[in-house]
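name: query_chain
kind: protein
chains: 1
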Amino acid sequence: MLAVVTVLCLGTLGGACASARGVPGFASATSTPAPTPTIESVYPRVENVGFSGSGDISDDAAIWVDRGNPVNSVVVADNKAPAGGIGIFGMDGRLLQFRADGMIGNVDLREGFPLSGGSVVLVGGNNRMSNNLALWTLDPNTRRLSPVAARSIATIAPNYGFCMYHSRVSGKFYAFVTPNGAGTIQQFELVDNGAGKVDANLVRTLPIGSTTESCVADDDLGHLYVGQEDVALWKYPAEPDAGSDRISVDEAGAGRLVADIEGMSIAYGANGSGYLFVSSQGDSTVAIYDRVGNNPFVKKIRVVADGAIDAATETDGLDVTSLNAGPYFEGGLLVVHDQSNDGGTTSNLKYVPLSTVAQMTSP
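structure:
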């Protein structure tokens, strides 16, 4: 989804910027637990206004960056209330649009989807009430969403999470849907139906033993990361013909991830570098791993209070970009869910300058 434009340097704790490759402390799901790492504090610059209503109704986000005018970048956010939907928030946290399109679980987006002879920003999610795919186009000029699904596209029931993948091998676009309980992860190919709408064809299923919400695909390396909430962070091949073999990146309770394993996203860097961000909901932190090789662990961060903006607690969904997302976020943006927003009636999202998480250098 994101262009390779920067080198991310997450450095060792208390030390100079260094490569994450070879960092000790990586564990598989069957290894001896590693020592609990030190947690670094990072500070939010903006929080969004949240949705109307009450409770933990907003948890996942997808960032769209306007490369020509970064101040016009937006955060797309789900509303998982039974009568929920999807919203667009500006970089100042204001709500620009809300569509009451159902109980939306997770959201993701990709630029460059071919539709009606052109190219669009395609936004997708899973509707937990109707158990189908939800699809929209995002207009870069108006910063508004329009529904684009060709039909009611049924998914596994009950569905729980969602992410997208753009294959560098075939150029095709895919959606993954995860189950609320033991079941299968579904992979759909997303296609232009020839009439200005987007359809989907089921191309693969992957068995999973228990509730799995968040996932993220590495478009460049062809990996799919899946968070089996109280078990492990898994890495699968993302191509539909690549089989179902998987590798454990880390496990819940091994010293870095405290169940539930929740939101995840990738910050792309230059020349194949970059980092995988994973929310550790049980201790309100985010664990960071190198995106290459065996995904060695790098460090953990916690979004703490800063002035009138409270800390992020019981973080579920997150998204990250290394692109310039406008004032305060020129070095990139990390968006995290806060389940208990002080002074608000609903959960909301905190915007964190990526430069406070990682030292950034030009490629």
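note: The radius of gyration is 19 Å.
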